[in-house]
Amino acid sequence: MEKLRRILVPAFALSFVGVAFVACSSDPDPVTEDTGTGTDAVAEVADAKPETETKPPFEVGLCDKPLAATFKCEAPIKLAGQTTCGEDDVQGFLKACWTPLGGSKDLCTAWQTAHATCNKCIAAWSYTSNGNPNRDACYYRVMTTTCANAVKCYFDCVTQACADCSDSTENLDCQKRARAAGGACYENSYKQADTEKCFDGKGPIDPCVVDELSKGSSADKALLADQLSIFYRGACRDNGDWSKASTGGDAGTDATSDAVSDAASDGATDAAADGG
After folding, report:
1. Contact predicate 191/76, CB 8 Å
2. What is the extent of the structural domain holding 237?
3. How far apart are CA 14 and CA 16, in angstroms?
4. What's phi and psi for 200, nearest 5 deg?
5. 270 lies in a domain?
6. Which pLDDT band holds residue 273 (cuts at 50, 70, 90)?
7. Can you tell me the distance from the alpha carbon of 74 to that of 70, in angstroms, rounded to the nearest whole number?
8. Within-domain flag for 183
9. What is the number of domains present in the chain?
């Protein structure tokens, strides 16, 4: 069975080159444009999950490091879904705050100010370091508890084991060794994740993975917009439920925009009454 792309790379190592989220606000945390050149961008994405190796090929000079004696697996925190964004809010966010979709800093700032309630959810479901969709938070919400625990432990494990790797090639090679039978992250997490087929095929985790982000400036804008729409609909329109996120329409409500709309409607009604 074909493996989902980009599913094994922990969030700290994802490199989104050329697809920029505009930095606009500091509420609740500032988001900045990710150029793919900082220390967070240390691993490019593998197309498929490699087969498990029989033993880790450790050699002198590799960047792998042993896990700290204090390392332990911890259950993930499941981020709460919300219903604070309507369809217009989601589309407005994409057009205002994503540069490939026509966004700019000024447009994004204006959108965030006018849609403060929806924006809090958008920010909560985005990586604060680069503003991209929080894929891992989505994983932990839609996966079984067994898978969520194993995957969280695996990501934490390879993050620590490969922390000294300085470039994408080294980091991916380190991850491969760590998840091999006998590797630092095999028995404590990867073995169970693989046995449970947590990463296999297209299924509940498919909406979590925005593939077009990995294509940089060559990303298909329409497909990027569609994938981002699905992600944020599920997170902020449909209360953390992606089962209907491929469909447009208003399931959520932005209290701020509703208040503005109500005020405008009341004003129009009053004006009509006065004119009559």
Report:
1. no
2. 11-53+82-265
3. 6
4. -85, 140
5. no
6. very low
7. 12
8. yes
9. 1
Give the pLDDT confidence score for residue 62 in this predicted structure: 84
Phi and psi torsions of 169, nearest 5° = -65, -45
* pLDDT value, residue 165: 93
Residue 142 falls inside a structural domain:
yes
Closest of 154, 119, 148 to residue 236, by C-alpha: 119
HSE-up of residue 245 (Cα within 13 Å, Cβ side): 28
How many residues would you count in the chain?
A: 276
In a domain, 69, yes or no: no
pLDDT digits (tens, 9 = 90+) for 124-170: 999 853 458 999 999 999 999 999 999 999 999 999 999 999 888 99
Chain-centroid distance of CA 14 in Å reads 10
Give the position of tokens 């009341």. 266
**β-sheet bridge partners, residue 3:** 200
Could you tell me the end-to-end alpha-carbon distance of the chain, in angstroms, rounded to an integer?
Answer: 69
